[in-house]
Amino acid sequence: MIEFGFGPGVCGELADGATREWLVTDGLGGYAMGTVSGLRTRRYHALLVVAGETPAARRVGLVSLDPAVVLPSGARVRLGAHEWNSGVVDPRGYEYLERFDLVDGLPRWRWRIGDVVIERELAMTHGRSAVAVVHRLVAGGPVRLDLSAACTWRDAHGERRADGPTPRVEPADGGAVVEGAFRLAGPDWTPEGQWWLGVHHREEAARGLHPDEDLWCAGRFSGALERPGDTVSVLAWAGDLAEEPPPATQVVAAARQRHRAVVAAAKPADAVDATLALAADAFVVRTPAGPDVVAGYPWFGAWSRDTMTSYEGLFLCTGRADEGRELLRAYAATLSEGMLANTADTGRVEYNTVDATLWFLHAVGRHVTVTGDTDLGDELLPALHGVVRAHLAGTRYGIAVDPDDGLITQGGTPGTALTWMDARVYGVPVTPRVGKPVEVNALWINGLAGLAELTELAGQDPDELWRLHDRARESFGKRFPTPAGWLHDVVDAPAPAYPLGGAAHHDDDLLRPNQLLAWSLPYAPLEPDPVALRRVAAGLFTPLGPRSLAPDAPEFAPRHRGGPAERDGAYHQGTVWPWLVGPFVEAYRKAGLPTDDLLVGLVGHLGEFGLGSVSETADATAPHAATGCPFQAWSVAELLRVRRAR
């Protein structure tokens, strides 16, 4: 794997160290997360974030363990870091950092105070909401180490303030239980109980969200570090509070061993593939319903579209086909009226996408093709045929096959955005894409062909599916090419002067990346045109992947910044989406164009934002600073997939 390491020039400079983030997950949707410098810049940064009934229903528990070293002279050196709403950063423990490393996916800090060097490592237990934090004396000593436990218990998307109830802290063996929800254990616990008022999160301020909260300092652990090798460790866990996790050093060792096994199972070709395989592991979680996929950390839960788009990269490229099989079977059980459920982050089952179901057809087809698991294909075949029948008959939101040309159309309703470009501002879709979107129909044609092959493998007659496929493919070839050389983004869209679903229609020829699927899918409707692809690349491609809209469009947004409305308005209006590098590179390969240098920027990005992972989005203009989630499932999955396909 790539080993990411930074010295004092990055660790001690907040502009660098506080914008690089690390993530450790528990396999349930919970996590620990923070920055290289140790400064918490998001409301989501904490050492113990606990998943609820769904991965999206997270709560923040242990926020930080602030170290303070007491030297033989009696001098006390504080090694934590907090920013306050006054603008002051205090303490400034990052100024003592001489090294940060991410080794085997686990973060490690080293502070130097003269000849005293103290190291911190942390890890989570897989399959349980528990974190272990180990402090080790590397050089110097003897010293005493105090660890102040800053706590809360709140929804991960909110904040808690001192004008509300004081957190309930009850004594427990070796520590305390906070709010009856999570437990702390370590050496020489001393209860304290005081509010830290006005902790500031600069990233939330930049996102136009409430940036401040109050934290409860529940108490302090303390231990002696007499000689190099001595440790002072703390455990924090939720769930069964009576069952203490293994010793902290064992938790760290077990996590390191498991991470190495995850990488080995993926059989990586090089260090980059190994890094991406471990990054992929963070998104595969176990819920009461079985395996699922967290779309992105720190704020997303499971989204069916993201799950199915990510499927091949997360499961088939990492040696997790058995888990993938279980996931596909579970998702098939959610089909209703030919549509795949999208539980998203609402906690409710919703059916509100035009493309997630078609990505599901693709995922099942790829699973059977790559693994030879025809038993799964046979088992799911009736459900997949049901998807086709429902689309032919018409289903929710006016989603149907147009009998005139065999293409998928979506009638939509006011306030809905059914494709992956689904951002809304004040309830109004920014890119409703009503009509016949290009990638939806590419997926439909791809899905029909894949299903026809599964049907034939099962010994059934695929002729009707091939007939539907051939008709849709012929219509696609006639309708989507534009005089400019690329493909329409939507055809048969309502004309701007007419109401939704009005009689007059137009074809949208804005240069967008959705057309890449028309060339890149296994059963793509069109043969790649090198000239058209080069034109698409000239308008859209960046070092981190394709833009969502060409810069010469009137609606182009160069930066994905500001408050929620500004960010959502720019989300698909130029913002770069790294996941699209998958179809882009695949289309280039099919066209016989060179691809060796197309992924250089994204590989370099692995050490720039979410360490060892790939961000959700980036600004449309240079330097293409990352935005959105620092750790995004389909960004990682598609980069891994196209690298493994070389």
Automatic annotation (TrEMBL):
Pfam entry (one): GDE_C
Top-level taxonomy = Bacteria, Bacillati, Actinomycetota, Actinomycetes, Micromonosporales
What organism is this sequence from? Micromonospora humida
What is the protein name stated in its UniProt record? Glycogen debranching enzyme family protein
> So which domain of life are we looking at?
Bacteria
Domain Glycogen debranching enzyme C-terminal residue range list: 279-641
Against InterPro entries, the record matches this protein to: 6-hairpin_glycosidase_sf, 6hp_glycosidase-like_sf, AGL/Gdb1, GDE_C, Glycogen_debranch_N
The chain positions of domain Glycogen debranching enzyme bacterial and archaeal type N-terminal read 20-226
